[in-house]
Structure formats: C-alpha cells, structure tokens
## 1
Amino acid sequence: MLAVKQDACHRHTPRCRAARKEYAVRVLTGGVCEGLQYLNPLNPATWPHKAKLIAAFATLYVVWGTTYLAIRIGLDAQWPPAAFAGLRLLPAGLILLGISRVRGVSMRVSRRDLRTIIMVGLLLLVGGQYGTYLAEQYIGSGLTALIVALLPLWIAGAESLLPDMERPTARGYLGLVLGFAGLGILLAPRIAGISGSGTELLGIGIEILATWLWTTGSIVSKRRPVKADALVATGYEMLAAGAALVLIATVRGEWSQISLTPAGVGSLVYLILIGSCVAFTAFVWLLRHAPASKVMTYAYVNPVVAVFLGWLVLSEPIDGWMIAGMAVIVTGVALATSAPTRPGRRGTIEHIAEPSEV
C-alpha cells in the first residue's frame, strides 16, 4: 500500500494533488514532488531514516546470529568444510562487486592495496571464518558463537599492546577480564571431565585459534588502511579467500564428498545471499549512519541468538555452565565495546570497525 510522507509540499498545492491522484493507483519505487516523498514498503531505499536504522540493526542482530546454525546444518548435510566455505565466498564476492559496479564505484585498487586486501582476506576468511567451519565439526553452533563473541576482547587486548593503537580504559579492562573468565567457565567442566568431551576441547581450540587469526587480520587492516570502497575491498577479499579455499578443497579431495541435499544447498544459498551479502551491506551502511559503538552491539546479541537457535532447531544441549559462561561473556563484551578508549602511546591509528560475522 502506498505510504505518503508530507515534507515541504503543501497539502492543497494543485500539483501535489495531481501527483497523489496519479500515483495512488500504482506501485512506486519512490519519487519526489517538491518535497513530497512516496514510500514503497518493498523498496528500502524509500524508507524513512529511522526505519532503515531499525531494519539494518535487526539484520545484524538476527542474520549474523543465524549463520552459525546455517553452517552446522550444511556440515550435517555432508558439505565438506573447505568446499562449503569456498563456494560461499566466491559468489558472495562477485555479488558485492556487482553491487559496487551498479553504484558506479571504481573497481580499481592499487598494487599496495591489493596486497593488503589479499593478506586481510586470507587472515579473516581463510584463517578466521574457515576455522569456524572446522570447529563446528566438533562443537555445537551455539558454543561456537560464544567463543567467536570473544573477538572484540582479543582485538582490544592485542591493540593495547601496540604503541600506536587505542588502549582500553579501566571499564574496558574489566570487560576483558570478565569475558575471558566466561571462556574459563565454558572450558572448566570439559577439562575436569564433568561434561563435554575431548573432541569438544579440540573444536574449542580450533575456534580460539581462528579468532586469533581474525584478530591479526583486523589489526593488519587498521594499520594498512586501503583507499578502495568498503564493498569493493570486501568483494576482493572474498574472491581471494574463496580461491584459496577452493584450492584447499581440491587438495583435500573434497569435491567428491559433496552431497546435494535440500538442506545443504539451502544453507549454502542462505549464507551467500543473506549471511554475506545482505548482512554485510547493512553493516557497511550502519557504519556510515550510526556510531561505531552502537553498531558493534551486534557482538553481544549474536551469540544469544545463536545459542537459542541451536537449542531450538538442532536440540543442542544447554547446561548451567553454558548459561553462566554466556552471561559472563556477553557482559564482558558489552562492557569492553561500550567503554571509551585512550589514545595510543605514540598517537592513534584511526579505528575502523571490523565485522566478526561468520
């Protein structure tokens, strides 16, 4: 149904009355009549700014929380990890570059920027994201999300050791302590043999290593900022990482292991279109229209969504240790990401928020 927002256009202006009558009988993608904007619910570009903010935050909160579940469903449907991750990234990268081309953004990058883009793509998406696929072979999607939730803490801790990066304040350090205490709560029953298994410890170890590699990629991207548009740079990162993962899948002989089931294909399509393209586009838009501290709140909403969906859809177990660990981790991440920072000892490199999506 056509919604009309009156701005500078007067209700009784003949020209505007004629425009209302003309456009009330058809669906519009949006138009302006001397300040009168026509809104189409199916076209986000015509929505009011507040509606766009709500939709973009909802996308980050929900969609990036569901990617852990989608990965686990794909792995359970016999998608081998390297092939699964590679086939997700290659189409997603091409789509993002296509969107950039339609927007008229330059696709050219300098040799220096290209080297940085490839390095960051390998660290973030091969080292970090592919590590999540490997880890979810041994641990549930909810537990994986809780470990990934520690990413802002690893990044803040690593930055505090570098003289030209921002350092946490006292509240930020308290968040670091709480967050890592939450990780200890998750590990304690598995180390003591109270619950869990040795294979879960293996999966947790793989995911922690993956977060370290993602942290390294994030710091490299901050220390070597590129001039290319964010979507263009991300598209090239996905292509570079996707090509590397296809090579890994080929060396490991994974292509013959793929089983084309509805669940597997559906999870792959969802991760390509929604998990990567839609969610990342929303992330980039939010960075331009909302404070980075607000945008990063997805980091402590995603794990709660992931844990709930893992329990609801896949019946993944949730015990008291996991609930306690989740509460402590989320509190720590909330404190750390919302706390102000101090300049580095040798000045501060401009902070660029990095997504921690999978």
## 2
Amino acid sequence: MKKCAYCGRDNADEALNCSECGTEFERAVKPPEVTNAKPHDEEKTLTIRIFSNYDQAGIAAAKLEAHGIKCWVNADDCGGWYSNLTAAVGVRLHVRETDAELAVAVLDAKPTPAESRHIEIEAVLAPPLPIVSTNKLAWGQIVAGIFLGILTCLLYQWKSEPATTPQYHYTADGKRNGEWIYQKGQVVEYLEDRNLDGQWDHWIYYDHGDEVRSEYDNNFDGKADEFWTYPDDGRDTSQRDTDFNGIPDEFGTYKHQIIQMVEMKPNGSKFATEREYFKHGVLTEIWRGGDSNGNFKEVVQYDPFFNPISTNAPAGLPLPTPGAQ
C-alpha cells in the first residue's frame, strides 16, 4: 500500500495519485538497461561473395536469412543510379565476421532433393510476369528511352574506336622509307621518305580504302609544294608551287588520269598568263600572254610530235617548241 504523505490516506501500490487529495506520488526512475549489443556500423563484417548483379546477390542473401544469418548487400553504383558500375566491381554480400564460416558453408552446400523439388514446384506455380502495354507509357518516356539508347550506342562506339596502327617499310640497309596507317582494318594514310633523309616528303590520304588526296615536298624543305585531289567523278586536279614561295602557280586538270589542261597563275593571280591544252594526253595548243580580261596575245598549235605548226603571232617571229610533257 502507498501512504499519502499529505493526507495520510492509504492507496493501492499501482496508484499514481492519492485518491483522497490527488497528490502525485513519487515515481522510481528505472535504470537504463545495459546490453552488449553493438549497432551494425560497429560490427565487424566480411565480404564472402561478389556477384555480377543484384538478382544473384539477392538469392544468396535470402538463403542466408532463411538459415538465420544476418547479411547485407551493397554496391558502388551511386545508390542504384548507375547500375552499369556493378559490372566493374560487382555486388558484394557481407555477413558478420563471426558468421562468415557458417555463411560460406550454407552457400556452398548443395540443395537436398526435397529442396530441389520445392524450387521446381514454386517455379511452375509462379504467376507469369505482367506484360506492360507500351500505350500506357507517355510519349515523352518512349522518346527519352530511344534517345538514351542511341546516345549509349554512340558512346560505346566512341570508346571502342580502335587507335590507328602503323606499319613500316624499310630499305635493304634498314632505313625506314614508308609508313602505312590503318584504322578499323583500312589504310587511311601513307607516308614516304623519297630521299631517305629521315623526313616524310610524300603523303597519300585514303577514304574507305580509296586514294582521295596526295601531297609532295619536291624541294625537301619539310613543306608540301604539290597537291593532288582525286574525286569520284575522275576529274583530278593538281596544284604546284614551281618557285617554292608557298603559293601554287601551276594548276592542272585531268580526266581519268589523262591531262586535259594546265594553267600558269603566278603568285596566286586570279588570271592565267599561259594555258596549255591537251588532247588524249598530247599537247595541241599553248596560249600565251594572258591578261585580266581573259585574252591571250599568242596562240600556237602543235602536231603530235610537239612541232609548232601554226600561230597567230606576227610573221617573222620564231615558233617556240615546248619541252616534253
């Protein structure tokens, strides 16, 4: 019985207040319960398995928990936002250090015939996965999914793009005078050292295995002074810097690799001062003395042996004979 210190009334032991005057009885303070338990963060754990995905790790974790073994599953995938990161470091299965040996034994143990039958029955009786109709998805989600898929493919191709691989050609005395550069198994560039001075002076560029452009350094000063282009229509072009001042002054046109015409435009001039015409690759005419209006003072015609046969120049002037082309 509890006796009220104010009015002296007897009260039941479980009473919190005096039934006579309402005075509140003093309550005994219960001491905190002392346990030896430690939070998970302070418990020492061990990684006993590393899986390639969460599904495999979840199956193993369920098996351990069915045997009363506490376990944890985690991975360095930014909280599930970047699941592709698990392919590199995997999904880890942890248990307490004291349970590690038992957990390994449980995972390594083969299922009994009864357990195997139970698994088969559950697989047969399991309901089929629901089929999600695409018309329930918003168009924005579909477009975003397609965009992300394309972006992923492009990034994969970019990351897997093979580096260029060179192959070299050497002379009999061991000097390197040629280099082929390949990409994806196709040649993309060829470099040649024609005078064997250790510097490239001829460059050929390819597109899908076809030669599209070439350059030459004819005075071997490290700078190209002759340029060729090879378009698909067979109308090749050439530019030469004959005085090596860095400005092309001779321009040639070809059809299926047969020369058609050559023009001289000194020092980058827009107007030709001399023009040569060819037929079937043979020089037929030379026009000289061109001005800014496109007029030429002299036109000389030649026979197939490069002999001048006619000219519009005044009588008495000698007919020039060109050098062999």
## 3
Amino acid sequence: MRKFALSLALTVLYSLAPAFAADSAENIRASANLSFNNILNQLTADYAKGLETPAQSAAPELVQAAQDGRYWVTAYAADSHARTRLLEAGLDIVEIQKDRVSGLIRKDALPSISGKGLVIESMPLEEYAGRHFKDFPAADAAYHNYKETTDLLNALATKNSDIASLTSIGKTIEGRDIWCLRVNSTAKGAAASPKPGALYIGNHHAREHLSNEVPLLFAVWLMDNRSAPEVRKYIDTLDIYIIPMLNPDGAEYDIRTGSYKWQRKNMRVNSDKTIGVDLNRNYDSWFGGQGTSHYPSADTYCGPSAFSEPESMAIKKFVEARKNLKTLMSYHSYASSILYPYGGSDADVPDAQDKKVFVKMAGEMGRLTGYTPEKSSDMYIATGDTCDWAYTTGKIFAFTTELEGDSFYPGASIIDKTVKSNVKAAAYMLSVTDNPYKIVQ
C-alpha cells in the first residue's frame, strides 16, 4: 500500500499537465473542462488576482458579522479531561496548546468557567476578529458555495455517466438536497452493490469550508484520473460515495452577507429561539454524554435527541442501507490531525485487531498529509460523534481528518496544498477498502 501511495502521487497526481485556462472559475465549473489541475490552478489564480479584500475594509465587516454575543476565550486545560469539562460548560474548543485551549463561548455561559478561575483571557468575538483577520477575505470566491458544489457534481456525473451517478440522500432543515456522488462501474443511484464501499463526508460544520473542497476536489481527481491503472482498479472493484456538503444550510448562512458568521451548526430553530444543532454531536454514540453541551445556544449543542436532525438522520439511513461500507472519512478543520475512535470514551476500541488497523491506517494517512495521527479522545472526549457511531454500528473503519490552517477562514491560497496532500490520503484509504485487515496481516 505504501508503494502504491508513493507511485500514485508521483506518476499520476503531479504528472498531470498544468495547463492554465483563461476562463473564470465560474465558467470552468460549469464547463466540460473538469481537469483536476485546471480547477486547482484557476482557484489559485483567482486568489492571486485579488479576490481577497484589502485590509482596511475587511475588519469592519468581520466585526459586524461577529456581533452575536459570543466571546473568544483562552482557558487553562492541562489534559483531555479538563478540555472535556470545558466543552460541557459550553466552550467550543478551537485551538489546543500544552496547558490551555482557546475557543468560542456564549456570553451567558462564560461565568461557568470564569468563576472557576480557568479563564486566562476573554474578549468579544468582534474584537478577536478585528485583531486577527485584518486581511480576511470578505468573500473567498475561490471556495465552492452550495450551487457551485451542486453544479460541479452534476457536471462530473454527466461527463462520466458510465461510472458516476448523483443522488440526494435527503433534505436539510431548509429543504436543500444533500448530494452524494457515487462512483461504481456496475451500479448507479441507490442500487445495491456487493463491492466494498468507501464514504467521504465534508462540511458537518458550516464554517469549515475547506472540508467541502477536499472531498469535492477528490471527486474531480478520481474522474480526471479514471484511466490510470490504480484508479481504474478502484472504480471497477469498489463502491465509492462522496458527500462534500452535509450542512449546506449552515454553509450558505455563513457566507450569505459576504461576511463570515462563524456558524458551526445547522439551521434548526431551537426551543429557546437560538439557531442550530451541532451535527457532529447528534449521532447515537454515547449521545448527550461527555464533551457535549445541552445549552441550545452553545456551538456544541447536541440537540434534543440522537438523530433529531434531518442531516444526521440522512447519514444514518444511508449507512444502514449499505452494509458493504468498509471505510469512512469525515473532514473537519482545523488541527492537522488524523483521528480514530473512540472520541466519546477514553477506552480503546475493544477488538485488538481493529485497533491495529486504526493505528496503522491513521499513521499512513498522517504520513501522507503531514498530520498527527491520534485517538480522538486524546484530544478531548466528545460524544455523539460520526465516526464512533459508524464503527459501533457497522464496524466501519471511520476516521476524522482535521485539516490544516490557522483559523476556520484561512483564505483560498491554502486550498491547493491541502487538497493535494489529502488526495493522497483519500486514495490510500481506497487502496485498503477491499480488506482493511490486510495491512496488519
């Protein structure tokens, strides 16, 4: 498998002709020219042309967008247990250092940690935004919004109709389709397949727009390289599913005004009129336990019950209907990590052989991306997690990739590097999907 990953990266990924098209990004996405490198080059070129907003005008927009009662807090937390308690108090942990964490918390929840002497620094979110994102793009136009994502998926399915099909796995709170591109040489749509299956999911969390780009452009890469021997083998022998944008309502809300809203959750109107449920705390894996918040206003609010949200329910029905799924990748940002179960418990997975597979796969994907492989709960305990549920329910080898960056909004210049390294890891996952146990035999 390691030999394949290296040869694929060298002979396929970087040998593609770096032709540059003069079309705009919008025209490229709608056209028949669906070359992986062409699209990446155009995204990079658009960013370089100055889509980023000048510093003097970006900060006021961020300040306006951030005025929603949240605070950016740095607090003491020496280990995963301390971090877990902060999550339960309503802190949405964003950054982890040796003895402290930083993240977002609602003003009304702030006393629950400040009163315990844990807070090192706190400031209104608008102040934090003004300090740290003065060159922040008002609209990262190189990123794909919901319509552009849908159009590109449609174009891929149309151009490659012999091996690809596009279906909706369900509707969101606001009625948007959740699109899934299926790549299989013998089965289309919802037809059953005996082939081992792999599932890639992006954008559980609205503000993590980079987590849409990686699976979306992996789909482009697969179709662009469909004739390469190794890729052809995957298409012929596997059942591949790609859901780039699970939370389109939240993602669209986050960019609706041209200023980011720091939205994490979906767009559920809660009982107290606050907005949103954290979809990655809404799965039935120790639901509502450690590391989740029961405050509806909190960014890590788990919801009233497991699978209360149509988006997580769509994944539940999708996975349970496909007993052939062997591997799963859920993309998030940002921590530069490859995480494996459990996330909702300190315990290791009980099957010793499975643990070896998780460690081996995470280590290889970490090598290919430069990310740190680790058990998810070593970061902090968070129940209701996608990957814990997928493994417990279907014994699927499920991973979370925390993508790179220094914020949720790192600009468009990061797309090229992030996508290329994660394509290698995504392809590696395909290389073991037929039988994950072979890597430890």
## 4
Amino acid sequence: MRENEDFDPEQTVADIENRVQDRFPDAEPALVHEEAVAAVDQYADAPVKDFVDIIAEREARARVDEALSED
C-alpha cells in the first residue's frame, strides 16, 4: 500500500498526461493537462493511493475522448 507521504500528485499528473497524450495525439495538450489534474485532484484525499494513477488515468482518458467526440 502506498502511504500518503509517498504520493506525488505532480508526478502522477505528468505520468497520466504522457499516457493520455500518447493515446490521443490529436488532443490539445492543455485539455489533456486539465483533465489529468482534475482526475488526480478528485482522489488527492483518498486514504490509500495505490490505484489513484490507474483510476485517474481512466477518468482523464474518458473525458478527453468525450471532448474529442464533441468536436
């Protein structure tokens, strides 16, 4: 289990941004960043951080996909 003090939200956001941008190369970097930050912030207070990166990435991917579909 990852302790709260081991959780680096900035690094988690950066990692998620990279993976989501790779999956959606046509997405604006600002959109990818915004969605990554929003997804990580949603779980910043979770008592266990083990799966924040996985869950937040799924949410960010879904939001970016939805935004691209609306265009």
